[in-house]
Fold this protein.
Amino acid sequence: MTLSRGLRRLLLAITTLALVFVYTPLALVVLNSFNANKSFAWPPQQLTLRWWKAAAQSEGARAALLVSVEVALQATAISLLLGTMAAMALQRQRFFGRNSVSLLILLPIALPGIVTGIALNNVFRTVFGLELGFLTIVVAHATFCIVTVFNNVQARLRRLGGSLEEASMDLGAGSFTTFRLVTFPLLRSALLAGGLLAFALSFDEIIVTTFTAGAREETLPLWIFNNLFRPNQAPVVNVVAAVLIVASIVPIWLAQRLSGSSNEGLTGAR
Amino acid sequence: MAVSGLLHRRPGLRVGLLLTPPMLWLGVAYLGALAALFVTAFWGQNSFTGDVERTWTLDNFRNLFTIDVYRTITVRTLGIAVLVTLLDALIAFPVALFMAKVASPRAQRLLLVAVVMPLWASYLVKAYAWRGMLGTGGLVSWVAAPFGLDTPGYGLTAVIITLAYLWLPYMILPIFAGLERLPGSLLEASADLGARSTTTLRRVVLPVVFPAIVAGSLFTFSLTLGDYIAVRIVGGANQMLGNVVYDNVGAANNLPFAAAVATIPVVVMVIYLTAVRRTGALENL
């Protein structure tokens, strides 16, 4: 080992502290969902399942969850299609403006969400004359989800190289047959991982959503935000939050299983 | 079959067909939206009806630069973004270094999951968790009390802590990826040549991971510039640029002014992106 013992111990200590820093607030939310006291003062004096029952019966939360899932599914489908096409175009050929194209794909997440939100809000209402609603949320979400699919597919294509496709072509298969029988099966797990990330990104998005949602549609983050400052709803919000924390283990586990390699699929970041 | 053969012989056509749908979407819907936003920033608002007036004016920008409140908010937002980025880089570097170069392969996998998991837990849930932590009678004040300290309460300190918390994984992951690509033999070579650990860190590790740190900073910086929710949850009465944009789209209904304010983070990010292009950070995303 090239790093000195002292340094390695220091790194371990910092990492441990960082993980405590990361997980304490999350653990607290889960614990507070059982806290009988509405003010969530620390330490909790009494535990209860009351809020979980209340949350299970909350119409608002259930409706919002449904909207969120529908939006995320549609945005994911669009970004899977467009992200894969862009990645395949960029991977195989060098052409003029290639860097600008990848920058353009990156831009919706590189620029602050508020800019994306207000720009789309403005263009939907004033240029296209659309009423804000379900459709506009989906379009907005798909726009910034393209990059996660694009990143995953591109990483996979880069690792694969083009020789298998060339072999398929040499054996007489056309472009479509090669895609169907060779490229697509090789991409499948990268597509699933990218799609999972896109789904999570859309499911969690609040800033862009505030600007592109109409008065009637409420996604789960919007519901949480709207109920956050209502004292009577705070315990129910806490339960929903706890459920979301626990549920986030599922996609992580899936992405891990799908991607094989530890890095790809999990990251892809925003 | 004929089409298929044609696509194979004409790679340019293939690229064109593949690129057209995504470019139409992003080019028209997104770049078009950005362009329209800039145009709107130069429009005015009728002070009686509140309607947007499509006449060219520089009033929005004049107000933005001359009214003290907006200058203060801009400086505050940029300051918070710089601090959050520095804090995240300071925490993320040792964590990523431990993950990449000290931990066993099994521990590395577990740590990676541990770092990524919070990314999937909702943004609002995490910001909200800090509201509970930092409130009076919350966990922070309980932990700090024996040391004679108190919670910072809701304010700018709380905003910086919360945002640094929220974006930390976005900094750890690129640095980890950068360090993973750094061959161990390079570290050994440095040690063989007599360098101490700290020298190796400064002269071998840091230069190699610098683009990765910049890549991470792109996220922490941009996400902070546009945030208006964390500051509403834990920031007390303070405002950031995002709040000004939000209030002008919603309550004040002054879209042109909101558009002018939104150009600030765009200009900052464009300058930042252009500056870091040369470091190779964009390939590290």
